[in-house]
Structure formats: structure tokens, C-alpha cells
Write a structure and sequence with these properties.
The chain is built from 5 helices and 6 strands; from the N terminus they run H-H-H-E-E-H-E-E-E-E-H. Helix 2 packs antiparallel against helix 3. 37% of the residues lie in helices and 44% in strands. The protein has one domain: Nuclear Transport Factor 2, Chain: A (Roll). It is α+β, with helices and mostly antiparallel strands. A hairpin with a 3-residue loop joins strand 3 and strand 4. A 6-stranded mixed sheet has the order 2-1-6-5-4-3.
């Protein structure tokens, strides 16, 4: 059964989304994002909010990378079904004197081989908000 799950179309798509996001592969993300995708980042920090469209999301992701002096994301788990995927990962980041170690859930709703929405939810919202504020 494990092989069947690993070959599920949304598992393949979720791994592509993870790789493209972690590597900053803008061309791959443009291909994997629906034209009207909505990305929501939870929190009260300046990077939190809702962004619509591939180009706006790519700009947002670039800003996240630029705001951190060092940023490393490590995939922990990936879960899929016919409607979407949940990517569970860990962020280690440094920004000036601040350090962040936080687990994050990235929930994608997937349709027709593309991501139509994304919700990014840190496990420790207070620590995440303090780091990015």
C-alpha cells in the first residue's frame, strides 16, 4: 500500500511543490500554482496575511528569504488525499539576534494537478510572530 500512496498524483504534486518552494524554483511554482491561487499565512506579523496569484506569492516568498539572515526548511512528513496535501516541515531561521525553531503545517488544496490554495500555519504562532515582527 505504501507504494500506491507514494505514487498518488497528489503525492507527486506535493513533493514537487515542496521541492520548488524549498529551492526557490520560481518557474516550477508558476507551473504548479493555479492562476488564481490564494496563499494565507497565519499570524500578526508583517509577513502574515493573504496573497493572491502566482507572481504575488513568488514575491512574498522572496521577501521571506530576504528578511532572514539564514533560513533552512526541513521536510518532516507529507500527507495527501484526493483533495489536497499537508506538508509538515521545520523552519530554523536567524534574523539579527533572533532565532526561530518552529514546526509548520502547509496545507494545499489541489485541483487538476495544480495548487489552488495554501494555508501556512506555524505550531508556535507567538514565536513565529515575534521572529518576523
Amino acid at each position: 500500500m505504501k507504494g500506491a500512496i507514494e505514487n498518488h498524483p497528489n503525492a507527486v504534486l506535493a513533493r514537487e511543490l515542496w521541492s520548488a518552494t524549498a529551492e526557490g524554483d520560481a518557474d516550477a511554482l508558476r507551473r504548479l500554482f493555479a492562476d488564481d491561487i490564494v496563499w494565507t499565512t497565519f499570524g500578526t506579523n508583517p509577513l502574515a496575511g493573504q496573497i493572491q496569484g502566482p507572481e504575488a506569492i513568488l514575491s512574498y516568498l522572496a521577501t521571506v528569504g530576504e528578511e532572514a539572515d539564514d533560513l533552512c526548511s526541513t521536510l518532516k512528513s507529507l500527507y495527501v488525499n484526493d483533495e489536497g496535501a499537508v506538508i509538515f516541515f521545520h523552519i530554523s531561521a536567524i534574523r539579527g539576534e533572533r532565532k526561530l525553531e518552529v514546526d509548520v503545517l502547509l496545507l494545499f488544496r489541489l485541483e487538476n494537478g495544480r495548487a489552488v490554495s495554501a494555508l501556512m500555519i506555524p505550531a508556535d504562532q507567538d514565536a513565529n510572530d515575534a521572529f518576523w515582527s
